Amino acid sequence: MKRHIDYKIPGGKLLRIDLEMENNIIQDIKITGDFFIYPEEGILSIENSLRGVDKNQVVKALKKSLSPGKIKIIGFDISDIERAISSLP
Amino acid sequence: MTIWRVVRQIEAKGAMQMAIDEAMLIARIRKKIPNTLRFFTWKPACVTIGFFQSLRQEVDAEKAKELGIDVVRRYTGGGAVLHDRELTYSIVLSEKDVPSDIIESYKKICSGIVNGLKSIGIDSEFMPINDILVNGKKISGNAQTRREGFVLQHGTILMDVDAKKMFSVLKVPDEKIRDKMIKSVEERVTSLKKEAGREIGCRELEDALIKGFEKAFGAEFMEAGLTDWELRQAEKLCREKYSTRKWCYWR
User: From CA A13, how far away is CA B93, in angstroms rounded?
Assistant: First the structure.
């Protein structure tokens, strides 16, 4: 099922997530918004790491796949992605 | 004292401006140019969206076309902006010239603007992540990318604001709150015109900002134009990247 989530980070940026999910497993995900990621291509690694992942395992999957310090995210935290997705009814 | 280059105001369309910024960054990486500050204005007015934004979600492209406003994706992250009555700057420099912490490096570069505004009588402050405020209201938004040890940061200094025009081309999450959002921008955003209480021309602002950046970096600026290499590279990037649907709609 395709879903769109707008998730405002308190006092910060807006995460906009396009999501395809089946039985709580992320099939496809696109994360857009007014944040910053260094290097920018890191967004693709983040999205790739989330395909096939349970919606409640987002942080765990990202911590496992992204080497620490290699990708810097400014404006949201990886836990915000999980929070945004789990906010879906 | 280190000599940096300053390129005076260039007026051009948005795709070309974004192409010049990237060309300057590449030229700096390849050591063809020194650290450089430049100024520019947008003709026609242009909406830019951040690297990570979806053009379809953020911009009413039909409406923009109808109003003769260009739309282009930036090389840098951040939000959608209507560039209309403003002076824009961009700066390329080595990562060694700024703190390695991203927000601290925004602060360092923005201190050039804060210094400059102070010299024309406007007190402002950097507000993380990437804004400069006067009396709590935004007067400047900034965005930065880093490539191969070098930094490109560009940003706006608002000369005047038209929130209605802005929201005529930017999409709002919910039509019911469009008026509320216009009002909120009018309350949260200010301009040089409002703060100075007089018209400040681009040239006067540029002079002030050049001094402000000199002070911030302990550098001395020498005026020069873009090199032929930069111009060729910019024309190519404008044509093959920033003007293409593929780039503008990639997300």
Answer: 26
Residues in chain B: 251
- Name the residue ranges covered by the structural domains of chain B: 2-248
Q: Which of A6, A16, A35 sits opposite B77 (nearest CB)?
A: A35
Asked if A59 and A78 touch (Cβ cutoff 8 Å), the reply is yes
Q: Is A51 on the interface with B (CB under 8 A)?
A: no
Residues B181-210 pLDDT 10s: 888 888 999 999 999 988 899 999 999 999
Interfacial residues of B (vs A; Cβ cutoff 8 Å) = 50-54, 57, 76-80, 102-103, 129-130, 143-147, 173, 251
| Residue B140 clears pLDDT 90, i.e. is over it | yes
Classify domain A2-86 at the CATH topology level.
Enolase-like; domain 1 (3.30.390)
pTM of the model: 0.96
DSSP B226: -
Residue of A nearest to B145 (CA): A38
Q: For residue range B24-48, what is the model confidence (pLDDT) as tens digits? A: 999 999 999 999 999 999 999 999 9
Rounded Cα–Cα distance for residues B13 and B44 (Å): 6
Among 3.30.360.10, 3.40.710.10, 3.30.930.10, 3.30.365.10, what is the CATH number of B2-248? Answer: 3.30.930.10
Residue in chain B nearest A5 by alpha carbon: B173
Q: Which one of B54, B145, B146 has the shortest CB-CB distance to A16?
A: B54
User: Is A32 within 8 Å of B77 when comparing Cβ atoms?
Assistant: no
Helix (H) or strand (E) holding B247: helix B245-248
Cβ–Cβ of A30/B53 closer than 8 Å?
Answer: no
CA geometry: angle B177, B182, B187, nearest 5 deg: 120
Q: Is the ipTM of this complex over 0.85?
A: yes
Total CB pairs under 8 A between chain A and B:
56
